[in-house]
Structure formats: structure tokens, C-alpha cells
């Protein structure tokens, strides 16, 4: 099986480049494509988005149509699938998923596709494995980590920052979004090598893992 994985930023790519092989092993292939933000689904899908801006949801309709045509030519004994990984943020999950399926259903041919949404943010997957966070950051604050409720809407990256960053989320935020993005990339690089993909408390991570394994035929 081959996977084309779409993520909204570089930190997501860094995390998945490490996590995906832990899940699917060496018998399958994958590419992780990072974008420069999640953006939003255009109201008129017929409008052409500016491809140079590389905003994930703005480009999604074009991307899925392209993958549908490409995958149609793949050999039957080595199929391919698209995996979209993005944050829920403050969106309604039910409505957001319906919007995503509306885009997919408009494709002809349709690529095999799974939508995997981090709730609330990608850092939820790190916080789903507290031992990995502690292994990467031995001085992480247990009092903060132990109050986290998996996949809760709580300001997830801020919660992780309060646990591992000197001065917490307020100090990191004061440095601006570029600094926040750089720190998120560091979390991805440092925490994911320690993560146990078979034991994670985040329901959205469990869903992601399950979909990969179902597609590879390793879970029925």
C-alpha cells in the first residue's frame, strides 16, 4: 500500500515522518506533504485557488481530483490512498467532516481517502503518550501533564507548553507565532521518537492508527 499524507505544517510532517513507519512497518510506502497552514474550504469549489500559496484546505479539491486520476493508474496489487491530517481547532467536527466528504464526493474518479482530524490540535497526540513527553522532557511538570484530558478542547498546544517550556505558554506566545511554530517543530522531533503507537490515550490518534492499519489489511 502507498499513502499520500497531507498535513497543514512542517511540524506535522516531522511528527508523521517518524510515527507512520512505526504504524505501517517497512512493507508499505508513504510521502508526507506539508502545507503552509490549514486555510478554509472555499464556498465555491469551482474557483481556482492560488497553488503557490500552498494552503491545505484551499487546495484540497484540486488535490483530491488529481490523486483520483493518478491512483486510477496504479496497479491493483499495490493500491494507494490519501490521508488528510489536520487540526479541528474551533470547528464543529460533524460539519467539518461533512464539508470534507462533499469535496471527496465531487471527485470522479474518487481516490481512496481518509480524513483524520486531531482534536483539538496535533499536540493532543503527544499528550496522549505522557511517558513519551517525559522521556523527551524529563523536567516536564507532572502537575500540568496530569490534568490533561485526552482530546479535550482546552488550548492543547498551550497545555503542552505550560508543561515543557520555560515560562509556559505565556512566555512562548510573547515571542510571536514564528517562535511558537519553531517550538512545535521541536516537540515533534523530540517527542515522537519515544511514542508507543500501540498505546496512546488520544482517541483521534487511535482513529488515525486504525485507518492506516485497516487500509494495509493489518486490522479488520
Describe the secondary-structure layout.
Layout: E1 2-7, H1 10-24, E2 29-34, H2 56-71, E3 80-87, H3 93-105, E4 113-118, H4 123-127, H5 130-136, H6 142-145, H7 156-164, H8 168-173, H9 177-191, H10 203-216
Parallel strand pairs: 1-2, 1-3, 3-4
DSSP E strands, number: 4
**Widest sheet: strand ordering:** 2-1-3-4
Order of helices and strands: EHEHEHEHHHHHHH
Q: Structural class, from helix and strand content?
A: alpha/beta
Strand content bin: 5-15%
List keywords for this structure.
globular, 47% helix, four-stranded parallel beta sheet, alpha/beta, 220 residues
Report what the structure shows:
A four-stranded parallel beta sheet has the order 2-1-3-4, with helices on both faces. The model has no long low-confidence stretch (mean pLDDT 93). α1 runs parallel beside α9 (177-191). With 220 residues, it is an alpha/beta fold. It has ten helices and four strands. 47% of the residues lie in helices and 12% in strands.
In short, what is this structure?
The chain is α/β, with parallel strands linked by helices. The chain contains 10 helices and 4 strands; from the N terminus they run βαβαβαβααααααα. The chain has a 4-stranded parallel sheet, with helices on both faces.
